[in-house]
């Protein structure tokens, strides 16, 4: 099951998990002040600082740089980005991600997520392309995924 995070649902998800607070690894948080010396990851969980990292995901479309114009030409409305822990299958994702920005940064991300997947979504068609990279479990990451976008049919 994938947890999708959208701006309007973040606080609802945290409240559904039993509220904010506690301390130590695994506690639910809104800010690092809630973590008793640990840091609050973007998953709203507390982690020791050495168990989070920066993950920059960039994308290209048929090997060309992403831009608003290229996304429109390719019929892409938006992207979905999903991070997966390959040992447990747990997934957390964000949608919609604007296609034309060409990159997505998560600055405090748990190292347990070792796979990043992008899906290009077209209106009325759903997912039209998927790409993924293994990003390992250590250190900051800057990865690029090329999405093979099929030609539009009239």
From the structure above, extract its key features:
2 helices; 4-stranded mixed beta sheet; 8% helix; 5-stranded mixed beta sheet; Immunoglobulin-like; 43% strand; 154 residues; mainly beta
Per-chain topology:
Elements: E1 2-5, H1 10-16, E2 39-40, E3 46-47, E4 52-61, E5 64-65, H2 68-73, E6 78-84, E7 91-97, E8 103-110, E9 115-122, E10 126-134, E11 141-147
Mean pLDDT: 87
Number of domains: 2
For this structure, the CATH topology of the largest domain is: Immunoglobulin-like
Number of helices: 2
Structure description:
The chain has 154 residues and is mainly β. The chain has two domains: 2-49, no CATH class; 52-147, Sandwich (Immunoglobulin-like). The protein has helices at 10-16, 68-73; strands at 2-5, 39-40, 46-47, 52-61, 64-65, 78-84, 91-97, 103-110, 115-122, 126-134, 141-147. Strands 1-7-6-9-10 form a five-stranded mixed beta sheet, with no helix packed on it. The protein is elongated and about 55 Å long. The protein starts with a strand and ends in a 7-residue tail after the last strand.
């Amino acid at each position: 099951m994938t947890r999708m995070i959208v701006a309007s649902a973040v606080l609802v998800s945290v409240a559904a998990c039993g509220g904010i607070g506690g301390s130590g690894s695994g506690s639910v948080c809104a800010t690092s002040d809630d973590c008793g010396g640990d840091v609050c990851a973007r998953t709203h969980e507390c982690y020791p600082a050495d168990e989070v990292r920066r993950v920059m995901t960039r994308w290209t479309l048929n090997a060309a740089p992403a831009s608003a114009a290229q996304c429109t030409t390719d019929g892409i409305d938006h992207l979905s980005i999903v991070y997966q822990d390959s040992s447990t299958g747990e997934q957390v994702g964000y949608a919609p991600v604007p296609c034309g920005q060409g990159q997505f940064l998560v600055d405090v991300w748990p190292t347990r997520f070792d796979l990043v997947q992008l899906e290009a979504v077209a209106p009325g068609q759903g997912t039209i392309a998927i790409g993924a990279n293994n990003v390992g479990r250590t250190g900051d990451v800057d990865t690029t995924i090329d999405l093979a976008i099929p030609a539009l049919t009239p």
